[in-house]
Input
Amino acid sequence: MRIPLPVKAVLSIIVCAVLAFVYVPLLIVVINSFNSSQSLGWPPKSFTFEWWIRAFSDRGALSALGTSLLVAACATVIALILGTLASLALDRFDFFGKESVNLLIVLPIALPGIITGIALNNAFTTMLGWKLGLLTVITAHATFCIVTIYNNVFARMRRLSGNLRDAAMDLGADSFTTFRLVTFPQLRSALLAGGLLAFGLSFDEIIVTQFTAGTGVQTLPIWIFDNMFRPGQAPIVNVIATFLVIVSIIPIMLANRIGGKAATGAP
Amino acid sequence: MTETAATAISLRGVERRFGDVAAVDGVDLDITEGEFFSMLGPSGSGKTTVLRLIAGFDEPTAGTIELSGKPVQRLASYDRDVNTVFQDYALFPHLNVIENVEFGLRIRKVSKSRRRQLAREALDRMRLGAFERRRPSELSGGQRQRVALARAIVVDPKVLLLDEPLGALDKKLREQMQVELKDLQRNLGITFVFVTHDQEEALTLSDRIAVFSDGKIQQVDTPENLYRAPATEFVASFVGTSNLFDEEHSQRLLGLNGMYTIRPENLRVSSAGDEHAGRLTGTVRNRMFIGANHRTIIDVDDIEVSVLEPADSPSRSLGEQVSLDFNESDVRRLRADEQSAAHVALD
Output
């Protein structure tokens, strides 16, 4: 299609403006993490590594980072297992209410975090009588992480020929061997893509975490939120933010490259 | 086939219902060891479902299936001594050619060196020796087909099930593969059960054919008998080209009660007024040259009759009066179809 030059120019400007609107603030955070002025005066006067050094010796920040990694890893593993099982079951069997179950599995990704947070908080504290802590955060994160795994695996199963399973069984493989030698290898990249996405989602989640973490558990996003406006902490927060940008982008990029056409569950 | 040959597969009263619909509706069938047996029918006639029931991918809702005299209808496919070549080949995309062929041997815990040797032999038999490192996606349709065959025969099954294996190939390749399949079956000496909707293919390849329609078997016979003596209206119309006369037409044309058929090549045309005037007279409505023959459509008392004449037969002009003759033995009485619902447009 041929686009007239003036239209092209206007479109280019709009695209640039949108991208600038998103990425210039991010760039400022990155620059400020090296800004020697503690009050983050703009433009930066000189360059320093001081904040980076202080950030990585800040106990609170480091332990929050550790908590976040642990929560994301556990939630991802739980989601990998449950999401895969759910999608295999829904792909394989026809039963009454199948479409509803499908919807119910995918719904948590569409629900506002604050609703999920309140609901889980109520369920944990009043109904189950659990003490809020690491376990409740992991459980809560797993609810929306399952969706990305489920969607990826389900999309992959749809593309697989059902005859592959029949062919494996025809050649003598029982159900478990068929899964191990035929189905799983087909799913591997979908699982990796879904897992990376789930990890990324959990890692920067803050709302559901607020409602389910209690007082003892501090993930990195919550640590940032708490320290953002404390005197003297702003430059360190910038360092952590820069670090988070990198940590979040890498898995999403990898997931995109691996998953390719596979449907993602990203909100 | 010798007369003492044992029964490889035996189906008794086999039925497969999906809700209210009977995909397979009371099938009895005996397939002899070493036989090239075809199941022929249009799509939806139940032939593939029967194949899947024999393979064990599906369970019959009623009836028994025996392999070599042992009931297997409740056995999983991995416990049955049959192997399948799938219509879409179903090659494992993450494995290369030789790994695909080795798959069944790997499951059977055959040693690595032995299974490589057996897989190579199977691939060489299929003239695929040079392709063992390729992925299935890097092969042509015909090559994939041969890999699927190699993968199935390498485990030495007693019965090979083939689900429209040539359906996806172009005409030339299909004819070539037909010859290869027939040779393969003769050399291996095992039972082939071949599903197809292509009557020509079934006639060419098979020792015997079961014609399916509406989940029922219309007739089981040798290709020659099936062609020469179709039992039902459906068989007469599905296998080859036929003139079918319903009760009214039979009465008017032949003075016979019941349903009758006669093959176009069994009708002889001569000019009207000839001293060898035939039993019927009619008008030439159409004449088409189709290579080795002319197909002439003759209107007899408002009933269209199709005649196959040799290419060197005298030319006939449209509207010409002709007379038709035939041997009484070529007129075949037809039973009603096994299920009344089947009415297929006459060719």
Q: What stands out?
A: Residues 261-267 of chain A have pLDDT under 50 and may be disordered. Chain A is about 75% helix and 0% strand. Chain A touches chain B through 17 residues (CB under 8 Å).
